[in-house]
Amino acid sequence: MTNVKEKGPEVTLSPPVDAGNGLKTQEMVINMGPQHPSTHGVLRMELTLNGEIVTRAIPHIGYLHRCFEKHSEAMNDYNKVVPYVDRMDYVAAMNNELGYAIAMERLMDIQVNDRVEYIRVLMAELQRIASHLLALGTFGLDIGAFTPFLYCFIEREKILDIFEKASGARLLYNYIWIGGLMNDVPADFKTDTAAFVKSFRPKIKELNDLLSHNKIFIDRTANVGVLPDKVAINYGVSGPSLRGSGVAWDLRKDDHYSIYDRFEYDVIVGKGEMGTVGDCWDRYIVRVWEMEESLKIIEQALDQMPDEGDVQEAIPKKIRPPAGEIYCRTETPRGELGYYIISDKSTTPFRVKARAPSFVNLSVLPAISVGAMVADMVAIIGSIDIVLGEVDR
Amino acid sequence: MKTAEELHRILAEKFGEELFELKQDEPAAPWIIVKAEQIREVSKFLRDEPGLRFDSLMCLSGVHYPKENALGVTYHLFSTSEKHKLTLKVIMPEEDAHLPTVEQIWKTADWHEREAYDMFGIRFDGHPDPRRILCPDDWEGYPLRKDYRVQEFYRGMKVEY
Amino acid sequence: MQQFLESFLPAGPVVVFVFSIIPLMIILIYALFAIWLERKVAGHIQDRLGPMQTGGWHGWAQTIADLLKMIQKEDIVPAKADRFLFKMAPFIAFAASYAAFVAIPFSSGYIGSMIDVGVFYIVAITSLLSVSIIMAGWASNNKWSLLGAMRTAAQTVSYEVPTVVTILSVIIVTGTLNLMEVTEMQTGNAFLGFLPNWFIFHSPFMMIAFVLFFIASLAESHRVPFDLPESESELVGGYQTEYSGMRWGLFMLTEYADMLLLSLVGATLFFGGWNSPFGSFMDGPVWGAFWMLLKGMVLVFVMMWLRWTLPRLRVDQLMNLCWKYLIPLSFVNLVLIALWEMIF
Fold first, then answer.
1. Are residues A206 and A336 in the same domain?
2. Helices A114-143, A189-207: inter-axial angle, 10-degree rounding
3. What is the rounded average pLDDT for all residues in chain A?
4. Chains C and B touch (3+ CB pairs under 8 A)
5. B85: β partners
């Protein structure tokens, strides 16, 4: 063994900075990710730390880039894009499919019947609850509370069971097609969903008791990562992260699509109950109460849903949209999912661009993380709820 | 709430008729074609002018038009207060595709412009951080161009499998 | 106990060896049990079952299987690590908590060493643990490890103050540092005829002292909500990040040994140690060991219960809690206990 022993760790140090009280301090550059338990996938944050305080944060993305847009341009059928759409935001695949289907139907001027619309809304809202459950559970996990994560997963499983019965898949459904659905829902769909709604309501209270109003949890999340509303709009932040900043902005209400105008529900906004408006706790609690609103929509949709109707009657034989383009946006659990689709009158898409909410929401991270501690970084990343599959596409 | 024609008229009055072109014959939303060098001033005007207030850039997409030998950038704007939408397009020749950045106007454009650069090779003058975003920094070519051929080796690794 | 061993074992050194190996046996068996228990407790708190397959009955052999797996693992030392310190750190950590068990009276018939400064010795020797963690964090040559080690240093040093002050408030009552004598003072049923003569019932301030002690001991043994040194979701694994196999296993063992140690100290100081809760009923050296371990395990169980319920504090909040609340409270409490002693 002729190893030269090296003393001490090799850390990248910036030149000493005067701390202001006659002492010198040095900053440390540290890589958070791509393999880190709390970056929700393969996000890499290049953090510059002064002690434990973040002075600069640069996100590096692209580790999960799967060329969604290039793949779409290589498909010889617009419907073949749907499975790829699933794989963007893999925890809210139904919402992605819904957005794509609506964009295509507007481009081709297809009207779907009421039964299809109601099933789509039910699926989208169930998926929203499932996605929020995952977001809340993992947010708790980031803060160090392990148990709420599993409580959330128990409920999420029940939703996935409903999806499995309808589509045969638990994560990536390929269920909502252009002009209709893959197949009709099973006979016991209504009873299953009603039973879930009934059993789920008390669980929201349970989650609030266990996590939302826990003193330590509030200490960790209130006044942390404050995102002011002006900044949020300028950065294009959308979804619960924007509503957490006190902006009542929900595309379901503000940019009508599907049949959301037929339901009564509220837009939840952050009020700064525990700290400042737009902090991590606000973004968290918006998701909690949005599940309640989704339950309201589901209940109304179950009541109104017609029992008759062919879910495939509007599916075109050959999807050949007229030459033209469309930008269509829908509200997914993470925010504004926009599809910019250009058609050149062939059966192959000319261009499918997805404006992914996570991608845009993540770009605000450097702006709100300066001055936070390492532990706060974890909370901030958790509270804006990114899915790296969607960020990188 | 203003329609695309009204917005086009406002812009033509402000900046001069010849810079803008309104396309309306398509099935989907109409759009306004803006000259590349004008986009920054037009964006600033659209954002700050009372009555327009396009405070949100919904989407910024690069597009490659191989027939016209051109690259384009499409801006989808929206106003959260006035609730109107507008689509702007910039078309540039493929060989010399560059235009001013709007990153200072809408921060949303920051990453979207990086993505357009990464995928199409459109350069945004004045962007503070003009790096690739999804592909590795030393990747060759611009994947979303229609004539893109993937490189054979990347750092000694075979790319095609 | 030593005389009993001497009666059938041949030589003096062998007796001493057997005598000193007993705490190790207790720790090892306890750790196997406690890790299994932690999984079962976590499982049941989280509405699942935990390990169910290995060994048949409720997965009792799961930890043994894990141990065998860990022993077989490759011993990886990072290329740029300080090899000597890196390899030493887990042993020092374990040695520190093992050495502390010597002053714990497991029953009226067994204490490792009847040193007169028992509690003081325990407090002193467990400080070595933070040295070993800093060694591990520094030697790993990993920035996350280093951050974890720095947190540990700050946390352990801070929380030693309330721990020592609450221990001191018991010492005021007993007047001795020898834990065997402390336990003997708590024999019998004194209060109201049925409450055992434990210090926790001695005065209302003793209960406060115990709560303070317990909170501080959670921080000392790095358990949730004070598990910042290894906080998985922030620092990847803190000082343990680069460790694998049996070296990591030793850190794990140390953590559990530390939990037991602090629980046993708590049981001795506040809950009568090896004394039976029913006066002279079920009393004696063997029952004493049973009661002692039972009391320790109950406190360990509470630690597990907390772990699977609470989130984690942030490092500045941790320091706030210690310096702004626990330390002033424990000093005030110390004075109040002293006054109580003077008056009654």
1. yes
2. 30
3. 84
4. no
5. B78
Does the beta carbon of C54 lie under 8 angstroms from any beta carbon of chain A?
Answer: no
Distance from C-alpha of C119 to C-alpha of C176, rounded to nearest angstrom: 9
What are the two backbone dihedrals, phi and then psi, of residue C265, each rounded to the nearest 5 degrees? -60, -45
Among A60, A76, A94, identify where a domain stops: A60
Query: How many pairs of residues across A and C have Cβ atoms under 8 Å apart?
Result: 98
Q: Where are the domains of chain B?
A: 4-158
The hierarchical CATH code for the domain B4-158 is 3.30.460.80
Q: Pick the residue of A68, A230, A363, A388 with the most B CBs within 10 A to test the interface with B by mutation.
A: A363
Q: Domain range spanning residue C99?
A: 79-343
> Of A85, A89, A36, A94, which is closest to residue A361 (Cα–Cα)?
A89
Q: Is the pLDDT of residue A84 over 70?
A: yes
Hey, what amino acid is at A109?
Answer: D
Instruction: State how far residue B9 is from chain A, nearest Cα, in angstroms.
Output: 23
Q: Indicate yes or no: CB of C142 within 8 angstroms of CB of A142.
A: no
| Alpha helical stretches, state H, chain C | 2-8, 12-45, 62-72, 83-100, 118-139, 143-174, 179-184, 204-220, 232-235, 245-270, 285-307, 315-320, 327-343
Q: What is the pLDDT of residues C13-31, one digit of tens each?
A: 777 777 778 878 888 888 8
Q: Where are the alpha helices (DSSP H) in A255-324?
A: 280-304
- Residue A83: pLDDT over 80: yes
| Nearest-by-Cβ selection for A235 from B87, B108, B132 | B108
Predicted complex ipTM: 0.85
Q: For a pLDDT cut of 70, what percent of chain C falls above it?
A: 93
Q: Into how many domains does chain A fold?
A: 2
A29 lies in the same domain as A157: no
Cα-only R_g, chain A: 23
C235 contact residues in A (CB cutoff 8 A): 374
Shared domain for A52 and A72, answered yes or no, is: no
Please check whether residue A10 lies inside any domain of the structure: no
